[in-house]
Amino acid sequence: MQRASLERLNEARRTRRAVVLLTDLGNAREEVVIEGEKVPAGFEEPIAAALQSGKSGLVESHGRSYFLNVHLPSARIIVIGAVHISQALAGMAAIAGFPIRIIDPRTAFATAERFAGVDLVADWPEDVLKSDPLDAYTALVAVTHDPKIDDFPLGQALKAGCFYVGALGSRKTHAKRVERLAAAGFDDAAIARIAAPIGLNIGASSPAEIAVAILAQIIRALRKRDVMSPAGDAR
Q: How many domains, the chain?
């Protein structure tokens, strides 16, 4: 591998950005393609498929053979709120291969007894996210029903271009949330990215069923995301 390619790959990994190393198998020429940046003509579909699936492989283009080596950051889930839904979601996320962190300043809820073996932080999201910022490979799930806790991370998720942003609450609750976010300067397009009511519409009622609906919606958002558009500030 060429040094320039290696440096770009390492920088993409360091900043948690998806990247594809495109190699011409006939002459060993390389090109590094970072998600959201310009894609070489004729490779739009195979590179998009590789970025969405995370699978490397051979591709034919312009009468030549190429190998697409894709490197994706580990998609993770950040949950705001140590509630019953979070308890169910933590176990399901682990089975599906998603690292998960739960943040809640309410120490009566955020206890080791309720979340054994889970990455749990009993602190305000504002403080936690300073040292562990959100990014495009983070799914943000807000489930406290408390705007003093939920609103800040929701705004940060929109700014960071998180691939999934969801918030629990009725349509009336969400309408008030929309008003607050608009007053904070977020436009309609950014606010519309929030999945609310949260989760796929499967008629879920129990906390475990709602967790299934949320996880399914997260997976769909990850695998169906627009990998050709630049990620980042959606404000």
A: 2
**Residue 232 falls inside a structural domain:** no
Q: What is the pTM of this model?
A: 0.85
Q: Is residue 228 situated within a structural domain?
A: no
On whether both 63 and 80 belong to a single domain, the answer is no
Spatial CA neighbour of 61 closest among 74, 47, 43, 80: 43
- Asked if pLDDT for residue 233 goes beyond 50, the answer is no
Q: Are strands 64-71 and 76-80 parallel, antiparallel or unpaired?
A: unpaired
- Model confidence at 126: pLDDT above 80: yes
The model's pLDDT over 161-196, given as tens digits with 9 standing for 90+, comes to 999 999 999 999 999 999 999 999 999 999 999 999
Residues 174, 80, single domain; the answer is: yes
**Residue 231 covered by a domain:** no
Pairing label, strands 76-80, 138-142: parallel
Query: CA 186, 192, 193: angle at the middle one, nearest 5?
Result: 95
